[in-house]
Amino acid sequence: MEEFAALLDALIYTRSRNEKLRLIAEYLRETPDPDRGWALAALTDGLDFKAVKSSTIRNLLKERVDPVLWSLSRDFVGDTAETAALLWPEPLGGVGTPPTVSEAVDALGVMTRASVMTELPRLLDRLDSAGRYALLKLATGGMRVGVSGRLAKVAFAQAFDVPVDDVEEYWHALEPPYADLFAWGADGADPPETENLPLFRPFMLAHPLEETVVDLADYAAEWKWDGIRVQLVHVAGETRLYSRSGDDISATFPEMVNALELPAVLDGELLVRGVHQGGEQGGAASFNALQQRLGRKTVSKKMLTDSPAFVRLYDVLMLEGKDLRGLPWNERRERLEKLVPRLPDSHFDISQLVEARDFDHLGQIREGARNDAIEGLMLKRRDSLYVPGRKTGLWYKWKRDPLLVDCVLMYAQRGSGKRSSFYSDYTFGCWDGDPDKGAELLPVGKAYSGFTDAELKKLDKLVRQTTLNRFGPVREVERTLVFEVAFDSVHASKRHKSGLAMRFPRIHRIRWDKPVHEADRIDALQALVRD
Amino acid sequence: MAAPFSWIRPEPHGVHVVPADVWIDPSKAVDAALVTHGHADHARGGHGTTVATPATLAIMDLRYNTREGATPVEYGETIRLKGGVDATYIPAGHVLGSAQILLEHAGERVVITGDYKRRPDPTCPPFQVTPCDIFITEATFGLPLFAHPPIAEEMGKLLARLEAHPDACVLVGAYALGKAQRVIAELRAAGHHQPIYLHGAMEKMCRLYEEFGVNLGELRLVADHDKDDMRGHVVVCPPSALNDRWSRRLPDPITAMASGWMRVRQRARQRNVELPLVISDHADWAELTRTIEEVNPYETWITHGREEALLRWHQLHQRRARALALVGYEDEDD
């Protein structure tokens, strides 16, 4: 447990992604099984102990520390596990021998609501403050050390010099403490059995097209939809829905889980239906409508009827026991087209190909796209195999041109990590009327990208020179600078005073030359709302 | 006869000693002030006369240009004030020159601690327990979760990090008066004899410490050196400079901060600190409560900090206490 506690503390104080990877990889290499597997599960929130909750910890502490002093301390620290780790009265004879991670996991696993009040203290009495913190975080989840599932998988790949795509694929086949994964990665054993399991397969991704021009004889075009990319897997009677990062989101969209009943791995865009889009009966609603359903663990009946989900299919990776990833795209497409009629049309359709005479014509079609659920075009090499990740020249995404609006810089906030000495996050606003007649600026968005390092230095200097007020890490600045802000779409939102929220705002150009009264008004932005 | 202790009155701007018409650590200019130590929330300029230890007066002169009316008093020395009040300056162990002030009048004894700690500190003499009727204490770290580790452990962490990253530097944010010099002196005590680099704002105070006999070893100014000179070295700066543009001139700095607040992980994260060093010049919870037990006063008055928790402790231990709502005392970056 001491090594795991030291790892947690090191991760808490490390902001650099590379350094985090190095720390985790080193831990995974040097720690024996099954401790490292449990630690990996803990870091990725893969553990759950029913008997240990925040309230359990609170109750334990209130038996040992005056309740008033406990509450004052908890309020100051802001985290129950940390407060408890700091306040736990150590046994008079000093702490005992620390448990290993697996010993702690075993003990936590068999605790009940009745036994936890006597068993958890026995573990805590064997640990120092850092160890107690690690144990309580392990027991209650929510590590908050800035390690995503993806980062942990990359660290595993780095630790044992194996392809991260393989780690991704096997990961979902296994349960903590991932003994077979370590046997394969660390000891060169055969890879884990994956044939009959509803596993996630790493996605094939696209590069931005930018200045590239392609020949439509070699590339097929299809719409790129503005939902979330998903993979739907059905095998041996079980169905799972995975997000782009490989998270299992089946519980968020239960209607999709019941919709696929033949063994297949499908790639598509998850959308919700909305009748008010583009006049198309039952077409896809905007991303804003989908957003209402994301991140929920349980779904109400009302949501299922008001915003039902469906998947617009792009590709088929596996079908009825055959792995199709080694076939060229056009052959997979053929099979996909034959497959779709066998699926319930309430829950599936196919992303139509876009026919164009030539590349210029395709450009015109893209310009004319009116449906808000369209994010742009995809260009896929007709002979491309389905390979994980982004391989140059196979798939391109050609997004719609962003919307642009001129905004005025209002507030700036310090960045983090390398940017912690720079004011690099900018909040900007538009006028709520005629600026020459006393109109005011209302914040409409925040962006921290789209400028060069040289521009950042210049912006940082401007912020420091024109500061009006300071609020902790935030500075309010004089209204002197106009940003041309690019964004994908704008939606009604209660979060901002302006009532609007932009999607993917970024600084497109810094208009050092433009007077602030010429910046856009809220009305102009309002007119771009389509939901 | 006047009511007990009616001669000493806590007011919003400081503690007023009525018969002598002097103020202890007043936060606004007064005719006569008794000052415990040189930190800005206790020592302010503009008083008619200022009574303090020679070191505190020198610090005030350096920081606030207060020369007029400076009246030095040595540790252990008693001075007679107007109205039959005696004042004695006693070491508080907080920073160079810091003192508790014992006031005696009409057979009643009051001790005002200013800020204090009970740990050994190579830059100032240790706190002395002084029995009294009213004990006026600080409570900056007055929560049971605050337990400052032995400073040798924290120095060990710092030096281990330095050794592991010979091409980088460790940038230690430390309060410019007291903490910075203590960290440097403790580094020397731990056997670190390399030059230590200073932010410009630290230089004069370090020189002043040396004039008062605190040996800080070889100190260099960051401004006088190239990036590469500082690789593998300790750099000390005020906490405010840690994430400032100033730090861009350093070679891959590892950001450390020496402060009692570093005990709480999220506090350290908020400051972007990579290497938290739990080092404080204030008493932690155990020191506060032990001191009150040893002094064993009739009543404790609490000036500033987490007074609610310390009041609760008094209640639990059946001791008398009250919190004074003094203005202007702050949680410095300690």
General description of the model:
The complex is a heterodimer of chains A (531) and B (334). Chain A has 531 residues and is α+β, with helices and mostly antiparallel strands. Chain A contains 19 helices and 21 strands. Chain B contains seven helices and 19 strands. Chain B is globular. The mean pLDDT of chain B is 94. At the A-B interface, helix 5 and helix 6 of A face helix 5 and helix 7 of B.
Short description:
The complex is a heterodimer of chains A (531) and B (334). Chain A has 531 residues and is of the alpha+beta class.
Gap between N and C termini of chain B, in Å? 43 Å
Unreliable spans of chain B? none
SS field, number of helical segments of chain B: 7
Average pLDDT rating of chain B: 94
Query: Main sheet of chain A, how many strands, which sense, barrel?
Result: 7 strands, antiparallel
How is the biggest beta sheet of chain B arranged?
7 strands, mixed
Read across the widest sheet of chain B, the strand sequence of neighbours is: 7-8-9-10-11-18-19
Helix content of chain B: 10-25%
**Class per helix and strand makeup of chain A:** alpha+beta
Helix content of chain A: 25-40%
| Sheet/helix structural class of chain B | alpha/beta
Number of DSSP helical runs of chain A:
19
| SS strand fraction of chain A | 15-25%
Number of strands of chain B: 19
* Cα end-to-end separation of chain A: 52 Å
Secondary-structure element order of chain B, N to C: EEEEEHEEEEEEHEHEHEEEHEHEHE
Unreliable stretches covering 5 or more consecutive residues of chain A: 276-281
